[in-house]
Write a structure and sequence with these properties.
Shape: rod-shaped
CATH architecture of the largest domain: 2-Layer Sandwich
Number of helices: 10
Oligomer: single chain
Number of domains: 3
CATH class of the largest domain: Alpha Beta
Low-confidence stretches: none
Order of helices and strands: HEEHEEEHHHHEHEEHEEHHEE
Strand content: 15-25%
Distance between the termini: 45 Å
Number of strands: 12
Length: 441
């Protein structure tokens, strides 16, 4: 990356130097041409105003200038005088562009290039009062000739500029790379990196993104570590109970009546262990959802009816009055996941309720959004616990949760299902008065 940036900076600098060089040469030569033409115009005007060129004075006209050529031409194109050649030896100039223009419009100019001499000849002609034409001309180097003559000094200047550009490119490359290098060197402690370490504000969002990703990776690693520790702890409790009861029975340290009781405890803990393992596997599946996940249009209310039928017996056992209300509500989702979401929310509402309490399930449109609402008048959740109830294995009342068969993973599963369906979940609860959970699709 460093080498690529360096080469591109040098390339841009070289391109800028070449464009500038040709641009300046072009502008300079244009200014040079304009000045040559202006000087010719002035010279021609001075000669015309001198009143030297009239036919009676032809024998007295004499000019010598190795740079400027002066030609006096009659109205029919016949050369009357030329300061660099005998007039009688010159061909008719009527076809010359500058002479033709001068006879028609009063003045005329043209430029002709000599390929052999690598020069441009600038002509300017002006028509005089007597109908004759006075033409002045001067030779000047072509743009290429000027460029070639200046080539040695140009090469020196370009070489110096290239050296400066290489030095600056290396310096700028190091400046650009420095914050990225510093970030990579301090990924283990991203808090050391501040915005001041990025010399360019455009790099700050990139650094923030890298920092955030690294923090997310660390958080995920810590979450996995905590989850592993929690799983170990949760599995240890029923396994210890099963092992203890089995050992007592194996060593015949219990009476026949106690054997029946201990066998029941082993069965209960085995069942709890099975539920716990199933929930852990389910969470693992939801952590890595595959594309599509069997999404289809379905009626959320119909799923709620199925869930209500499955939960009615459980509610009756606990003396809970369970009600369902709403209407048809079509959404796109995964049938099994949404059934699991409804059942988990309703089971929690039943489990953490008082005997004779109420649980209501509503499915329908609220403010044009498909909405699921589960509300109870049970024990409620203290305010300080409300932000954490969706964490894995987090229980507000651990003894009651285990007593009623809760694994502490139900709401964590709900949170994952909500995220997979691009929905939002909102919890409202007051201790001793009940809880209301709203899911908006």
């Amino acid at each position: 990356m460093k080498k690529r940036i360096n080469l591109r900076l040098i390339g841009i600098a070289l391109l800028a130097i070449l464009v500038t060089l040709f641009g300046v040469t072009s502008i300079y030569y244009r200014q040079f041409e304009n000045q040559v033409k202006k000087d010719l115009h002035i010279l021609a005007d001075v000669l015309v105003d001198s009143d030297i060129f009239y036919k009676e004075n032809m024998e007295n006209i004499s000019f010598y200038d190795k740079d400027i050529r002066i030609t006096w031409i009659d109205g029919d194109g016949q050369v009357l005088y030329d300061n660099k050649a005998a007039a009688e030896e010159l061909e008719n100039h009527l076809s010359r562009p500058e002479v033709e223009l001068a006879l028609k419009e009063g003045t005329g100019e043209s430029v002709r290039t000599s390929g052999t001499l690598r020069t441009n000849t600038y002509y300017y002609a002006i028509k005089m009062a007597d109908g004759t034409v006075l033409r002045v001309a001067v030779d000047a180097n072509t743009a290429m000739d000027i460029f070639i003559s200046a080539l040695p000094i140009t090469i020196v200047i370009v070489a110096v500029l290239i050296i400066i550009c290489v030095i600056l490119a290396n310096y700028l490359t190091k400046r650009i790379i420095r914050p990225i290098q510093r970030l990579s060197d301090n990924l283990s402690n991203p808090l050391k990196i501040t915005e001041d370490d990025g010399q360019y504000k455009e790099l700050v969002p990139f650094m923030n993104t890298i920092r955030k990703q690294h923090e997310n990776i660390l958080a995920a690693a810590k979450m996995r570590q905590d989850f592993t520790a929690a799983v170990s702890h949760e599995l240890k409790t029923p396994l210890t109970a099963i092992s203890g009861y089995a050992e007592l029975i194996e060593n015949r340290m219990v009476t026949p009546e106690q054997e029946v009781k201990f066998a029941g405890e082993i069965r209960k803990n085995s069942h709890r262990l099975l539920i716990l393992i199933n929930d852990i596997i389910r969470l693992s599946e939801l952590d890595n959802p595959h594309e599509g996940m069997g999404m289809e249009p379905l009626d959320l209310y119909a799923l709620a009816v199925e869930a209500a039928q499955n939960l009615s017996m459980n509610a009756q056992k606990r003396g809970i009055h369970f009600t369902l209300s709403g209407r048809e509500c079509i959404i796109r989702g995964n049938r099994e996941m949404l059934r699991e979401l409804i059942e988990n929310l309703c089971e929690n509402a039943i489990r953490y309720n008082n005997e004779g309490g109420n649980v209501s399930l509503f499915v329908g449109m609220i403010q044009d959004k498909p909405t699921l609402v589960v509300e109870d008048n049970g024990i409620g959740i203290p305010k300080e616990h409300q932000e954490r109830v969706f964490e894995r294995f987090y229980r507000v009342d651990k003894s009651r949760s285990r007593e009623t068969g809760g694994t502490g993973l139900g709401l964590a599963i709900v949170k994952h299902i909500v995220a997979i369906h691009d929905a939002s979940i909102r919890l409202e609860s007051e201790e001793g008065k009940g809880t209301k959970i709203t899911v908006e699709f």
